[in-house]
Amino acid sequence: MKNKKIALGVTAALFLGSTVGFAAGAGFFDNATTVEQNIYKLANIATQNKQKAADVQSKLDQTTSQQKNLQDQLDSLKQQLANKQNEVNAKQSEIEAKQREVESKQQEVTQKQQEADKLRNELSNAQNDSAQKDARMAELANLSQQKVNELGQ
């Protein structure tokens, strides 16, 4: 594309040069050297434009490369973030599993505490019954002793 522009510019310059040459030959320009100098100036301008285009293309290539590097870095950071999120999710799952285990153990403790309370109540009731029976036995023993004493008199 650049070469086509340069070739077109040189062709235009030659066409203009031949037109100018024709005009010079016809007497419009007294100095053919001026025409030749103008052709060289146009060639220099075309060369400078070619260099500017090459510089711009180089800068574009550099910018594109930098953009690709930045995109690669961004993609890498996104992947790292996704990996960290997966780690966090895994840890969260572990925490939730431990929490369920703790809750299960707490339920077991509560159940065992209730069983222990029930057994304490049963023991207390049994001790009260035993104390009442002991008291009744002592009372019966006293009554029987009194009856024996009354009959023995």
Strand content: under 5%
Q: Report the uncertain regions.
A: none
**Count the helices. How many?**
2
- The gyration radius over C-alpha positions equals 57 Å
Span from first to last CA? 149 Å
The ordered H/E elements are HH
Average pLDDT over all residues: 87
Structural class: mainly alpha
Main sheet overview: none
Shape from CA axes? rod-shaped
Query: What is the total number of structural domains?
Result: 1
Describe this structure in words.
There is one protein chain. The protein has 153 residues and is mainly alpha-helical. It has one domain (2-142). It contains 2 helices and no strands. The protein is rod-shaped and about 180 Å long. 0% of the residues are buried. The model has no long low-confidence stretch (mean pLDDT 87). Residues 1-23 form the signal peptide. Residues 93-106 have a biased composition (Basic and acidic residues). Residues 83-92, 142-153 have a biased composition (Polar residues). Residues 83-153 are annotated as: Disordered.
Characteristic key phrases:
single chain, 153 residues, mainly alpha, 2 helices, rod-shaped, signal
Outline of the structure:
The protein has about 150 residues and is an all-alpha fold.
